[in-house]
UniProtKB/TrEMBL annotation:
Its main location: membrane. Belongs to the PRA1 family. Keywords: Membrane, Transmembrane, Transmembrane helix, Transport. GO terms for biological process: vesicle-mediated transport. It is found in: Membrane. One of its GO terms (cellular component) is endoplasmic reticulum. InterPro entries: Prenylated_rab_accept_PRA1 (IPR004895). It comes from the Eukaryota. May be involved in both secretory and endocytic intracellular trafficking in the endosomal/prevacuolar compartments. This is PRA1 family protein. The chain crosses the membrane at residues 73-90, 96-114, 126-144. It is a multi-pass membrane protein.
Amino acid sequence: RTRSIDDGDEDGKAKALGLPGVALAVAHKILTAVKGLWIRSSPWLMLVDIRKLSCPESVGDALHRFRRNTNDFGYNYTLVLLFVAVACVVTKPFSLMVIAALAMLWVWVFYVRASEFHYNGQTYSLRAQAVAMVMFSAFVLMIATNVSQVLMGGLTGGFLLCVGHSVVRAPEPPPEGDAE
């Protein structure tokens, strides 16, 4: 049995549509995951309330704020981190093209053509193909192009933004009856 993009897609409709169908199925899964994060996130007006911003009094207070705010706004911070990383990649068209080309190659190898590969009398299983694809993708992303620098810059910037916000935002008081 070949693999299918969607667990509920027994007929392999996405695979039958070829690369565009698989791309749409993957995009749908990504959008569903982001929508789930959005639904579970705290209200955004609470996150950006300027009246709650203040300097922590000590390192212990900063750590307390960090723990409380990441607990309260963890999903919001994840969305901010994703947005900053995606914005960094989108502003560099070459990086976007490299990532899109690698994604299409992965989809083609594992979903459109998902079978063993025969070359020079040797047969390569899907596992061997996966190892080769990981090595090729790592080479392209980390050595041959600057895509890893763009991604790491975006992730680092988003991480520092989230950590900085969680430290300077005074946490909400605990509800009555809750022991902290």
